Amino acid sequence: MGAALLLLIPLALMSCSTDRKPSKGNPVAGKGLFASSGCEGCHTFRAASSTGTQGPDLDTAAPSYAKVMRQLEHPGGLMPSFATKLSTEQKRDLAAFVGGPERSGKSVAAPFRPDSKRLADCRDGNFQCLEQAFGNLTFNEGPKVALAHLQQMAATTPAVQSDCHQIAHRMGSAALAHFKDKVSPAFVAGTTFCFSGYYHGIIERAFLGQPIEKLGPLAQQLCSDRTITGDRFLMYQCIHGVGHGVMIYTGYDMPVSLKTCDGLKTNFDQVSCQGGVFMENFNSSYGVTSKYLRKDDPIYPCNAVAERHKLQCYGLITANILRLTGYDQRKTAAACHEAEPDWIAMCFQSFGRDASGIAGNSAAKALASCRLARSHEGDCLYAVSRDIVSFDAGAERAGRFCEQVPSKYRSRCHVGLGSVLVSLEPTPKTLKAACRRISGRHARSCEKGAGMTTPQT
User: Fold this and answer.
1) 457 residues of the chain, pLDDT tens digit each
2) Which structural domain, as residue segments, surrounds residue 55?
């Protein structure tokens, strides 16, 4: 067994109430120690993607932090001694990862496990096959190659386009496995294609197995590497992914998830995280129906959450309304008009985002949808242009769309384009050049959306 961490059967019993103390240590560091100490060879543990059978199944046993610490400090039986091999800090880190009163029992996510499935095996367009095959491609050849292939296939294969976000989720999970659980290189290798599903998949997998009381500090830590913090766009994607991840981890407990977001350091972090929470609440990555939805109240929970949470909630609410109306856009627009008065405009921005997704590459369909917004047509068109840039990870198609909108809304459309383009261009110089090239005579509106002129309103 070498240095494998073979826990004794008594340790494998469920934790007692006396063990329910706040755990110490860093579970992220502990995850690395679990691998480097040889624990994977002996234990099945979902959070580590390990399937060893020589020692107890840690998912079934769910040992507490205190019991893991006792076993590490006072070894016995078949388990090799770690009393002197690990420092006190390392033992605490390992115990924080393996133990904890509320580990990942509720999480609906699972670690990525590669198999032999290839894209050639998915000719029937089966979504599960496509997700696994793209995950395998990511794991084996790296995310850059796989994401480029995804972008090519999404343009020509309807099954890939319709499931693109979920495929990208699986690819993010596979990328984290490819980079041996290192978040920063996985992030740097990614793209926003398909609504940033790749980034969401990285973070949701990174949460697996962590103690619930560590979610707040862990959320901040996951996104603290300089390669991420030095790029505001990557920072947003990371923190937004935290919102998805904590919802998935907690089994769609929205209040706990929002509380985790509220505990982050800055307003930027808090708001970015909230968006991930509400997106996951309305559009589950795993087909879960959140209990924070009501069939008889399509605006819920936006009309019930705290004021500080309404912006992100209303910005995504029509995903829920569309589902309830059977994707009847006319009824969805009518529901937005019944929202809280101060948030009707934001509801129609959400409507524009979803109308863009439904329209696909058809500008005519998106324009027709936005006409249903009546006095809020400009809010809808603004959101369509943002959505196109976000989906394409580029603004050329959005620029062509904006030139087709009614003239009185054209400037606002280019403002929306610029508000996302700013995250894609590396420097102010290249951003300004891109605005001139794409928006032409509306370049100043593009710059305004990017925050280069008068602040966006």
Assistant:
1) 233 332 222 222 222 223 333 345 666 567 778 888 888 788 887 666 677 777 777 776 777 777 788 878 776 656 666 767 888 888 887 887 777 543 433 455 667 889 999 999 998 888 889 999 999 999 999 999 999 999 999 999 999 988 898 899 999 999 999 998 888 899 999 988 887 889 988 988 888 767 667 777 887 788 888 888 888 778 888 899 899 888 888 888 899 899 999 999 899 999 999 999 999 999 887 777 888 999 999 999 999 999 999 999 999 999 999 999 999 999 999 999 999 999 999 999 999 999 999 999 999 999 999 999 999 999 999 999 999 998 888 999 999 999 999 999 999 999 999 999 998 898 999 999 999 999 999 999 999 999 986 433 3
2) 10-101
Do 191 and 246 fall within a single domain? yes
**C-alpha–C-alpha distance, residues 77 and 55, integer Å:** 12
Tell me which of 101, 121, 152 is where a domain ends: 101
pTM, to two decimals: 0.69
How many domains does one find in the chain? Answer: 3
Same domain? For 273 and 357 the reply is: no
Q: Is 45 helix (H, G, I), strand (E, B) or coil?
A: strand
How many other CB atoms sit within 10 Å of the CB of residue 60?
9
Residue type, 127: F
In a domain, 2, yes or no: no
Residue 402: what residue type? C
